[in-house]
Amino acid sequence: MAISISVVLLLSILAVIFVRNGGLKVSHALVCLMLGFYLAGTSVAPTIQDGLTATADIVGSLRP
Fold first, then answer.
1. Domains of the chain: total
2. Which domain of life does this protein belong to (predicted)?
3. What is the reported pTM?
4. Which of 11, 8, 14, 7 is nearest to 60 (CA)?
5. Is residue 56 part of a domain?
């Protein structure tokens, strides 16, 4: 749960930065948002979740 909230927060911050810098239009951000909601309802969602969890575990285990 904490990982998904962190990912959502990070992606939201990036989207705001991109919209403010002009690299991402509001319409593009809305399309990405809708795509995310639709993907969450498909059978691909567990695979995406597993991939994000594995990536977060790898990044979390790295020591500088």
1. 1
2. Bacteria
3. 0.56
4. 7
5. no
